[in-house]
Amino acid sequence: MKIKVISRNPDDYGRETKRDIQRLPRNYDPSLHPFESAREYTRALNATKLERVFAKPFVGAIDGHRDGVNCMAKHPGSLSTLLTGACDGEIRIWNLASRDCRRTIQAHTGFVRGICVTPDHDNFLSIGDDKTIKMWSLSAPGTGEEEPVHTILGKSIFTGIDHHWKDATFATCGQTVDIWDHSRAEPLRTFSWGVDSLNCVRFNPIEKHYLASCAADRSIILYDMRGSSPLRKVILNMRSNVIAWNPMEAFVFTVANEDHNLYSFDIRRLTSPFNIHMDHVNAVLDLDYSPTGREFVSGSFDKTIRIFQLEKGRSREVYHTKRMQRVFCIKWSLDNKYILSGSDETNIRIWKAKAAEKIGKLTPREESALAYNDKLKEKFQHHPQVRRIARHRHVPKEVYHLTRQTRIMKDSRRRKEDNRIRHSKPGSIKKKREREKVVVAEQE
Description:
alpha+beta
């Protein structure tokens, strides 16, 4: 005779310690849970609402400069160290953890145009309107007045500087792009392609021999340090202010343009950008990539900071305050958690990269709850109610009206183009995509 016995292992149901949550047996058969989708939708809606309630991105402001903050540099070996240069020639080194100034250096006469830290973390370089390149020690001097380790006098004003990611070489731009060595007072190599001035130069963080610059004639120029002449030039409709390479994809870069947009290019196909990032209502002055390479942050003349995802054309966040003026420089911290901005009214501001993220260590229960809510929001992200709440942002009145005006102008241009095609001979006018209108010419 067979007898069926219910076997129950107490380890599967009991708690390991008194502080653990009681384990509950659950059957995940869909037929037993007919209202599961409705419950999940309600949870996703509540999670989206709570995210907007707890979205407080502003962490703090640091003041000390007496003029507008014009440039900024991250320390590659220290998360809490930040270097800033002002329009009065002053450079300050900050401790972000305690939010105080460690050192103040009167480095240049006129604007400080650029700062970069050397890969060995011992020195940093600065350029200014006084036609000089100065190397300073990152360790504080013992006594006496601060003196540069090395000074190079140039022939013209330098407008941008960037350091090689490994070697003891750096690049500057002005009337030409010059490659320098730490131990020499003359450039190792000079590149020019018939332009008056260049605004920005950046080394590729992966393919370290490549660099790119933005020129005053609306062009983007690519270089190879091992060659004797520039590789390629792309001319856009309007001038680009800054260029930034993707730290994870060697062939992707993004430029901040005067026409209020940002353009992401692939160097393997420069005939058109693979994405246009729109939302700013004035010229974009600076941008910086996140360490993951999936997002970047931009600062604009319209007094706002926006965070974009690389594969999307619209910003996911917009940051602004009543006191913040034009944003001249912006950086994304190397721990992927904070954004640092320098603006015209002498302040440096610290923002959270994720507006609703909690600062500090999370308990395992909090981490699992947040992960569950994120999955729910992702599942219902296209539902009208969830999408409306997740996308809504309060913006300054001026930005709101300019956005509305820009939308009306775009609709008018599109309507005019459609009417022109409709009343022309069939095939005489071809309708271009927005991405095809950006590049005017490509030269090799």
